[in-house]
Write a structure and sequence with these properties.
single chain; 258 residues; alpha/beta; Rossmann fold; seven-stranded parallel beta sheet; 39% helix
């Protein structure tokens, strides 16, 4: 495996995953170029591509973390891949989501389409799929708890949340290496029912709610209920949801951003 210091560009560098990834790459001695619409050094809107060629000049590896549930991922990937070809980028690493090929959700379909673009790009490529981050589950449960007295949840759905810094560490390892194609999924340490996760969240946040499981309709719900988004055979993460919540609470009490 190649381990020499590289010039690595990270898209979505100011996002939930991009921030710890950039920090990890820099700590490992790589030259890191942080690209996002709000980046102070490389402010690029990937759907337009203005400034992209300058950002990619001399780059060995691109780690593509930029994504939006509001749409535009496929167009952004096309622009990025075209720029990477022009710049002679050797390795394109892409982070995706477990279940994009099994859950018929619009956002997941777009993520799967981007995977295919990466695979057909003509560049050396690596794709890692991960389960949902602790942060996402936290935000979902925080929003659900705004309902008075009860905490409504989709019945029969489980999740396997993973710590984002563990995903960042794995991406940094892949970016430092050679193109590897589709690598094994990265899942959190435990498959938990949403009701169980909700009770842990209520205990950590000091709220009192009755957990209310509601059956839903639709193909996406049925796929989630069937566990299409889970990777129980790849439960390689170590940080549990309770440990994430405890660290989050400690950070908040210390006055640091949560």
């Amino acid at each position: 495996m190649t381990t020499a210091t590289k010039t690595i560009l990270v898209t979505g560098a100011t996002g939930t995953l991009g921030r710890p990834l950039c920090a990890r790459l820099a700590a490992d001695g790589h030259e890191v170029r942080e690209l996002s619409r709000r980046s102070p050094s490389h402010p690029v809107d990937l759907r337009r591509g203005t400034g992209l060629d300058r950002a990619l000049a001399g780059v060995d590896t691109v780690v593509h973390c930029a994504s939006s549930p509001r749409g535009g991922d496929e167009e952004a990937a096309r622009v990025l891949i075209a720029g990477a070809r022009r710049a002679g980028v050797r390795h394109l690493v892409h982070i995706s989501i477990v279940g994009v090929d099994r859950v018929p959700l619009g956002y997941y379909r777009a993520k799967l389409a981007v995977e295919r673009q990466v695979e057909e790009s003509g560049l050396g490529w690596t794709v890692l799929r991960a389960t949902q981050f602790h942060d996402l589950v936290d935000r979902i449960l925080t929003a659900a708890a705004k309902v008075p007295l009860v905490l409504p949840l989709p019945a029969g759905v489980s999740d396997q949340p993973v710590e984002v810094t563990e995903v960042a560490a794995r991406l940094a390892e892949l970016a430092a290496g050679d193109p590897a194609g589709r690598v094994p999924d990265l899942g959190g340490p435990e498959v938990r029912t949403f009701a169980d996760l909700a009770r842990a969240h209520l205990a950590a946040t000091g709220r009192t709610r009755r957990v209310l499981s509601l059956p839903l309709a639709g193909r996406a719900y049925r796929a989630f209920r069937a566990g299409g988004h889970l990777a129980p055979g790849h439960a390689t993460g170590r940080v549990t949801f309770e440990e994430y919540l405890a660290a989050r609470g400690a950070s908040a009490r210390g006055g640091a951003p949560v």
